UniProtKB/TrEMBL annotation:
This is Methyltransferase type 11 domain-containing protein. GO terms for molecular function: S-adenosylmethionine-dependent methyltransferase activity. The keyword Transferase applies. It comes from Sorghum bicolor. GO terms for cellular component: mitochondrion. Keywords: Methyltransferase, Transferase. Residues 90-188 form the Methyltransferase type domain. It comes from the Eukaryota. One of its GO terms (biological process) is mitochondrial respiratory chain complex I assembly. It holds the Pfam family Methyltransf_11.
Length: 343
């Protein structure tokens, strides 16, 4: 038996033990089955299922994770570019544990609130309090980013590391974050972008076409880089900033990749997903992944695209764009001064 086939069969065994390889369709009510909330608005993600994913991740996540730590470190580096301090800060879900561990006094934070929709995750954070005295004053809250339970204008800083991409209304969640900030408060976020797990998406698509004659949604839609700036503007943030980074993580096989996604709480939570992953499709996905993307050493790569967003709540002291038409020099004058451009 080839190593890829063996990995695929282990993947199938995991499916039988835990109920799914890629999460099954879960319906709690007729309206949920239609992907609508009580107000008739379309829901892309099953937030109750995502909470259960977070419950599982609370006990499955690694003590340290190279990918998560790299993202958190990169996000926190932005605090070093700010001259001001942020006495009160809120850290939302996702990889908040890594943010807390890697904060190391950056941002001048004196009081830190850590919030997650999973009570198990919050419990783990509370129990892992190190008590060394170098942490800010800690508070823990069970809450949902879609219904932020934070008083308006109460925080100087809000950080979200790898969590907001699971909200059904991302602009709405970001608006709530802006309102929770004090004037001149800072919003920092890192979300997974659309190129994330592109290898797995391709392998799943090819396997489904081969084995089932069609495709069905098994992986979550993610934001595109070109949309990030618009998201910040729609949410009302000033001085918006967006940049993107890409990480490639090597795994021994597809099983190891899926286990890592489980430990991060990043498995699929779509409402519209097939309830069954067929045996042949599971085996084919692992084999195709290895065949198409396998490296010389036998490992497989997985791409994680991370979009970093920075925005501020408006304040009179902030720089503002000049009024349209207020320029005192024209481009033609500049061209005359410096001469025509050379091709």
């Amino acid at each position: 038996m080839s190593s890829s086939s063996a990995a695929a069969r282990r993947l199938l065994l995991l499916r039988h033990r835990h109920g799914h390889l890629l999460p099954k369709r879960h319906f709690s009510s007729s309206s949920a089955a239609d992907g609508l909330d009580d107000g008739g608005r379309v829901k892309i993600f099953d937030r109750d299922l995502k909470r259960r994913h977070r419950d599982r991740a609370a006990w499955a996540m690694r003590e340290t994770d190279g990918l998560v730590d790299a993202v958190a470190e990169n996000l926190l580096d932005r605090l070093e570019d700010c001259r001001k301090a942020f006495p009160s800060a809120l850290c939302l879900g996702g990889s908040a544990g890594a943010v807390r561990r890697l904060l190391r006094g950056r941002g001048g934070i004196e009081r830190l609130i850590m919030m997650d929709m999973s009570a198990d995750m919050v419990k783990k954070w509370r129990e892992s309090e190190n008590g060394t005295g170098d942490e800010p004053e800690m508070h823990f809250v069970v809450g949902d980013e879609e219904f932020l339970p934070i008083k308006e204008s109460s925080q100087d800083l809000i950080i979200s590391c790898l969590g907001l991409h699971w909200t059904n209304d991302l602009p709405g969640a970001m608006i709530q974050c802006r309102l929770a900030l004090q004037p001149d408060g800072l919003f920092l976020a890192a979300i997974l972008g659309g190129e994330t797990l592109k290898e797995l998406r391709i392998a799943c698509t090819v396997a489904q076409m081969e084995r089932e004659g069609g495709i069905s949604p098994r992986m979550s839609p993610l934001a595109q880089v070109r949309d990030a700036g618009n998201l910040l503007t729609r949410a009302g943030f000033t001085l918006p900033g967006v940049d993107v980074d890409q990480y490639t993580v090597k795994y021994n096989n597809a099983l190891e990749l899926v286990e890592h996604l489980r430990a991060m709480g990043e498995t699929n939570a779509l409402f519209q997903r097939n309830p069954v992953l067929k045996r042949d499709t599971a085996l084919a996905t692992a084999a195709i992944y290895q065949s198409m993307f396998g490296l010389e050493d036998g490992s497989i790569p997985a791409t994680f695209q991370v979009i970093y967003m920075t925005g501020w709540r408006e304040h009179p002291s902030q720089q503002k764009a000049k009024r349209r038409g207020s320029a005192t020099i024209s481009f033609s004058d500049i061209q005359k001064q410096f001469g025509p451009s050379e091709n």
